[in-house]
Amino acid sequence: MVLDFLQQGYFALFVIICLGYVIGNIKIKGISLDISAIIFVALVFGHYGIIMPSIIEKLGLILFVYTIGIQAGPGFFDSFKKQGRTLVIMATVVIISASALTFAAIKLFDIDVPVAIGLLTGALTSTPGLAAAIESTGSTGVSIGYGIAYPFGVIGVILFVRLYPKITMANLKKAEQDYEESSTEVFPEISFKHFIVENENVAGKTLAELRIRTMTQGVISRILSDGKPTVPTATTVLKNGDIIKAVGTEEALKKIGVLIGRETTQEVPLKEGYEIQSILVSNTAVVNKTIREIIQWTSTYGVTITRVRRSGIDITPSPNLKLQMGDKIKISCSRDHMEVVTKLFGGNSKKLSDTDFFPIAAGIVLGFFLGKFSLNFGSSFTFSLGLTGGVLTVAMILSRIGKTGPIIWSMSGGANQLLRTLGLMFFLAGVGTKAGAQIIETYNEYGFNLFLIGGALTLLPMIFGALVAKLLLNVNILSMLGALTGSMTSTPGLAAVDPMTETNAPSIAYATVYPVAMVLLIICVQILASLG
């Protein structure tokens, strides 16, 4: 009876997920597989002939990769500027070493070139690499090699990234703190100080004339003039002896001190009838608007924006900073206008939990077409991003754009996490059952040697990459693990790393190196194919 039910794909899918979660929560000496245990359950089901429809794997892959891109996109570009070169070096080490080992295997073990190339692409779980290899060689040996190496390519990466922190006794909590501290270098801590207006070149001029926001990246939130607190506007004139409250980074406050005068311990009280409040940005009308545009838009209400909190980080509200959906802004405003101003920005947490599926579907469609687009370099080399690369690239670009007309491309954290987990479960179940269906038959037909070579092509490049990252590049372990999974083009590997930390470090590193690794692998495949 149960076996009959298991022949129903949808029933088997959720049985695999249930068993995967049960097994994933089992800890042995502090080690657990978490959600990645689903793939091991799926391998067993696949061996006994229970295979997920291919649409399950594709749907899961698309949802998982798209949500990763949406989450990683805003930080990807900053990360690439900051550590892109370092992570690309890691990817290069992994791909070049894997290709060199493949060449050595061809020479030492007299393996057919197409089979060896298949081992390489399977060990790195690269479908675009497989497609390029088949096109270059025109041989079925590529698919055979891919089938031999692929199961351990999936499992080996998962085991490596899960066990590496335990083997090296890495402190992941410390790594999280280090990563967050390095992030504050991009978004320094916001504080406030009080200054006395003493500069003769400042006295008698309006704030609009002084352009303090633009010049210092700081904000004047209050002014005490003639013993009375006031809320600054563009037309406010500073006078000698006035006391101002400035908000900004340490560097911004230093610049304000040079411009205005010496620091003082005397504080400026809040103007009577005014209050300070944090408001959640949930109104699409203000998304992608700059602080300068917002200030102009709300000028009649006397609003002062003193800071913006985004993804747990306080950001100085510089004039060109664009608001994003889900930002939390701290404002000073008259009590009479606070209700109106709150509605202008949204202030509706329920709206953030509502998910508009049109941007998701539209983004995936655009990613599909980008993945189909190919570039021809002569008659022997064609490059395309493929489904995974296309969807990932589009998601990162759209999340960076944020808004196009009425369309909001970003997603709330809860919605992103739900869709990502759903996609991940489907993907692992589909990949696992497909690999499990072939693993025993492949072993019986081709013996154990090719499995060992495939396993070496998976593990050794990761070991080389990890050594280079640790000893030469000093890469944070969370970024290193994400970069390794990206270098191995392993989405299941990223799925194994993702639950290990609350930061976006692995996802951003994965998104940074994935396109580079894919291009390098295709080039290496073309070079190896020329040997045959």
TrEMBL record:
Belongs to the AAE transporter (TC 2.A.81) family. It comes from Plebeiibacterium marinum. It comes from the Bacteria. Keywords: Cell membrane, Membrane, Transmembrane, Transmembrane helix, Transport. NCBIfam families: YidE_YbjL_dupl. Gene3D superfamilies: Regulator of K+ conductance, C-terminal domain (3.30.70.1450). InterPro entries: AAE_transporter (IPR050144), RCK_C (IPR006037), RCK_C_sf (IPR036721), YidE_YbjL (IPR006512). One of its GO terms (molecular function) is monoatomic cation transmembrane transporter activity. GO terms for cellular component: plasma membrane. It is a multi-pass membrane protein. It is found in: Cell membrane. This is Transporter. GO terms for biological process: potassium ion transport. Residues 180-262, 263-347 form the RCK C-terminal domain. The chain crosses the membrane at residues 6-23, 35-55, 61-80, 87-106, 144-164, 357-375, 381-401, 446-464, 471-488, 508-529. Its main location: membrane.
